[in-house]
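Recall the central idea of this unit: under ordinary conditions, the amino acid sequence of a chain determines the structure it adopts. In this exercise we apply that idea directly, starting from the sequence alone.
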Amino acid sequence: MLISHIKTFNELSTEELYALLRLRSEVFVVEQNCVYQDIDGKDHKALHILGYNDNQLVAYTRIFKSGDYFENASIGRVVVAQQQRQHKFGYAIMEASINAIKLHYNETKIKISAQTYLKRFYNTLGFKEIGEEYLEDDIPHIAMVKY
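Accordingly, the structure predicted from this sequence is:
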């Protein structure tokens, strides 16, 4: 079972910040073999959704209100630890993120920049593709919106 916590940047403990940066690096840099600037200066504006299983951070996203990243509210840095994916924590962390946007920002329209191979996953959560596929850090992505 995934237990999620929602925190501002300033509410994160040193241990939580280290754990989320480590998880993001494990997946986005090491597993996906992609050198990019993960620490992008946007974490201060985001709400951080931390997903725990057995007191270990296994899933994470960051969310933004309209205008802080995209024109609409958004979810980014969606990540689940590789060894935990069989538990479907991706769905749980995304549902927690969608609900957090409604609760904290009172918004329902959400835009994401999704890795193209995850289109069906996001479709099951109500997101629809908009526009053409594009490369972001040499990985195919597509913009998607949930109304």
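Residues 19 and 56 are 9 Å apart (CA to CA).
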